[in-house]
Automatic annotation (TrEMBL):
This is Unannotated protein. GO terms for molecular function: fructose 1,6-bisphosphate 1-phosphatase activity; metal ion binding. GO terms for cellular component: cytosol. Gene3D superfamilies: 3.40.190.90, Fructose-1,6-Bisphosphatase, subunit A, domain 1. The keyword Hydrolase applies. It holds the Pfam family FBPase_glpX. The lineage of its organism: unclassified sequences, metagenomes, ecological metagenomes. It comes from freshwater metagenome.
Length: 328
């Protein structure tokens, strides 16, 4: 889309981001009582209800491309649901009221509440294939890293581009049995691993942030999380590639029937075609990206990050809420 074709009345504008952060703040605050209580479903349910209520007040006409699942399995924030008050720009929406429900239930770090937004029709709907093999890094990876290459080769190439020794490289990967060989190869290359218990959205974003200790995030995680991450990566001017990873032949065929490409490397502009993306995240628990919700006497404090690709801005938003207004 050319700049001449851009008309603010038809596309998400900067004011939308500050409206959306209210929804992620509400979701995080609502999940707060469940942190460390062992009930991840209760935490997720509270976050979903709060996010949905706030989204209904926002001036936009949104369609959820990536939500909590299909309508029959997810009565709220399901794929295809219309959100917003119907006024304003038409948008694709990706939501994850809690990315890291298990982390929240266990009281572990790096759980966040997330919303990503782009122009209508620009997000890849990869919901028919649950998993995606991804590689995410900063701008230095462009023209240097390729998901089709062995991980050791990619690590050495990125280390050279960043002017670092391989031994200084830190690679984030979900700690899953499926990644045993990948973890072994990373360590054999001389790099160190940062094993993630959950929440590879935060891992991918941290890999693209210039001040982060993570240099690259790799491995198989959720395909919806890949689309959400791509919205943030475009705002950070980073690098992301993804290959769909169906779990069996039936899911592979389901993806093909939905128009998805198998054994194909999706680049950032194919995961999200718009050049006007928003990514909003509020911390539920403490992490490297944002701090978690904190109770400080009569207030509840939230910490959020707001990214926008069109302007290339990264905003930090700290908000204090009166605890009694939330029943605390």
């Amino acid at each position: 889309m050319s700049k001449d074709a851009y008309r603010p009345s038809e596309h998400p504008d900067r004011n939308l981001a500050m409206e959306l952060v209210r929804a992620t703040e509400a979701a995080a605050i609502s999940a707060y009582p469940f942190i460390g209580k062992g009930d991840k479903n209760a935490a997720d349910g509270a976050a979903v209800d709060a996010m949905r209520a706030f989204l209904a007040t926002v001036d936009f006409d949104g369609v959820i491309v990536i939500g909590e699942g299909e309508k029959d399995d997810a009565p709220m924030l399901f794929n295809g649901e219309r959100v917003g008050n119907g006024n304003g720009p038409q948008c694709d929406i990706a939501v994850d009221p809690i990315d890291g429900t298990s982390l929240t239930g266990a009281g572990r770090q790096n759980a966040i509440s997330v919303i990503a937004v782009s122009d209508r029709g620009s997000m890849l709907d990869a919901s028919s294939v649950f998993y995606m093999d991804k590689i995410v890094a900063g701008i230095e990876a462009r023209g240097v890293v390729d998901i089709r290459k062995p991980i050791g080769e990619n690590i050495r190439a990125l280390a050279k581009a960043k002017g670092k020794d391989v031994s200084e490289m830190s690679i984030a990967v979900l700690d899953r049995p499926r990644h045993e060989d990948l973890i072994r190869q990373i360590r054999e290359s001389g790099a160190g691993t940062r094993l993630l218990l959950d929440g590879d959205v935060a891992g991918g974003i941290n890999a693209a942030r210039y001040e982060s200790r993570i240099d690259m995030c790799v491995g198989i995680g959720g395909s919806p999380e890949g689309i959400v991450t791509a919205c943030a990566i475009k705002a950070l001017d980073g690098f992301i590639q993804g290959i769909l990873a169906p779990k069996d032949d039936a899911e592979r065929q389901k993806g093909i029937d939905a128009g998805l490409k198998m054994d194909y490397v999706y680049e950032a502009n194919e995961l999200v075609a718009s050049d006007n993306t928003f990514f909003v995240a509020t911390g539920v628990t403490d992490g490297a990206l944002v701090d978690g919700v904190r109770r400080k006497g009569p207030i509840i404090r939230t910490d959020s990050v707001v990214l926008r690709s069109r302007s290339g801005t990264i905003r930090r938003v700290q908000a204090d809420y009166r605890a009694d207004r939330w029943g605390y």
